[in-house]
Design a protein that fits this description.
It comes from Phaeodactylibacter luteus. With about 120 residues, this protein is α+β, with helices and mostly antiparallel strands. The chain is about 30% helix and about 50% strand. The longest helix has 14 residues. The mean pLDDT is about 95.
Length: about 120
């Protein structure tokens, strides 16, 4: 599989409600995840963060991938996406972001999310 196909598979799994399956399959043990609100280092810390996010969600309504590009030579994929969810507090939101993923072999070793945190 190309890096682009792997990234597409992640979002296919997310669309099926299998976020943690995608995480376990495609993220390296030493992964670093960065976003405007902070940085997490290591798969265990990132897993805990993802599980906490899922525990706050009441319902997933939509997931759209607006663009997905890859630099196969350098192992970089970029995904622009939108996710709409209702949280358990009743707040329904559309979250738009861009994820830049650095791959080594079959796994992501670094992922940075760009979005408006305000």
């Amino acid at each position: 599989m190309t890096y682009k196909e792997k990234a597409q598979d992640i979002y296919n799994l997310l669309g099926q409600g299998k976020l943690m399956d995608a995480f376990e399959k495609y993220y390296a043990e030493g992964v670093i995840m960065e976003e405007p609100t902070g940085k997490r280092v290591g798969k265990a810390a990132c897993r805990e963060y993802e599980e906490q996010f899922l525990n706050k969600v009441q319902e997933f309504h939509d997931l759209q991938v607006h663009s997905l590009t890859s630099d196969e030579e350098n192992g970089i994929t970029t995904v622009e996406n939108m996710m709409e969810v209702t949280f358990k507090d009743g707040n329904r939101v559309q979250m738009e972001q861009v994820a830049v993923q650095k791959w080594e072999g079959d796994q992501i070793v670094h992922e940075r999310f760009y979005y408006n945190a305000g």
